[in-house]
Each structure stands twice: as structure tokens, then as C-alpha cells.
Write a structure and sequence with these properties.
Blueprint (H helix, E strand, L loop, with lengths): L2 H17 L7 H6 E8 L5 E3 H10 L6 E12 L2 E10 L10 E10 L2 E11 L2
Parallel strand pairs: 1-6
Antiparallel strand pairs: 1-2, 3-4, 4-5, 5-6
Length: about 120
């Protein structure tokens, strides 16, 4: 797949994970998150797949995000690193600068799955 097309596909998968009401579409979780998925949250805490799924299910499904400077780096022929800035939209200006995000996606069984995610607060 061409690099630009792959970057757009991964960006769309990231958005789908964040912006879909996963209580209405529970199968999407297994489609997008690998069984061995884990995350380091913006506080530096390691979160399990179950922790992240719990948050995804209770988040406000109307919340929208703005991705900035989205790019990918190929790590292997079947693994990419996504790097981007993320900020919530429609929020009062609280001085929140958003966060920098990284995700590792692997192509497994003919589909891309997120295996790792890290969030770092911007100051």
C-alpha cells in the first residue's frame, strides 16, 4: 500500500476507535485492538486492554477530536508507528494544550490492529 494511503487508513482507524459509540458497536473493539494491547496513559500509568475498553465504553460518544500533524513511520513491513497531536473540539478554552499520541499498529490476519498506545500531555 502506498505510504500516503496507509497513513490515511491508520488515521481513519484511530478516529474510528475514538469517535464511535462502542456500546452500540461492541465488535469494533476486537476489530481494532489486539488481544495483547496495552497503553501508557497521559499520567504515565500502564493500562491494560480491559482498562482502555472500559474507558472507551463510557466516554462521551458525541466528543470529537482534532488530529494535527498525523504521520506514520514504517517499523517493519507489517508494523507502523502513528504519531500525532490530539485535542478535543467544542470545549471551552481551559488552556488545555492537548496531547501528543503514538500508536503501534500491526497487520494481523488481513487487518490492522493497534497493539500499543501512549499519550503524553502537552504543556
Amino acid at each position: 500500500m502506498e505510504s500516503n494511503a496507509l497513513a490515511e487508513l491508520i488515521r481513519q482507524l484511530e478516529l474510528k476507535l475514538l469517535q464511535t459509540d462502542l456500546t452500540a458497536h461492541p465488535g469494533l473493539i476486537d476489530e481494532l485492538l489486539a488481544e495483547d494491547f496495552e497503553e501508557i496513559d497521559h499520567n504515565g500509568e500502564i493500562r491494560s486492554r480491559a482498562d482502555v475498553i472500559g474507558w472507551l465504553k463510557i466516554k462521551d460518544p458525541a466528543m470529537q477530536w482534532i488530529f494535527k500533524d498525523f504521520r506514520i513511520k514504517a517499523l517493519t513491513h507489517s508494523t507502523v508507528l502513528a504519531i500525532y497531536s490530539l485535542q478535543k473540539t467544542g470545549q471551552p478554552d481551559t488552556g488545555n494544550a492537548g496531547s501528543i499520541r503514538t500508536s503501534i499498529w500491526q497487520y494481523r490476519n488481513n487487518q490492522w490492529k493497534m497493539v500499543f498506545h501512549q499519550a503524553s500531555r502537552k504543556n
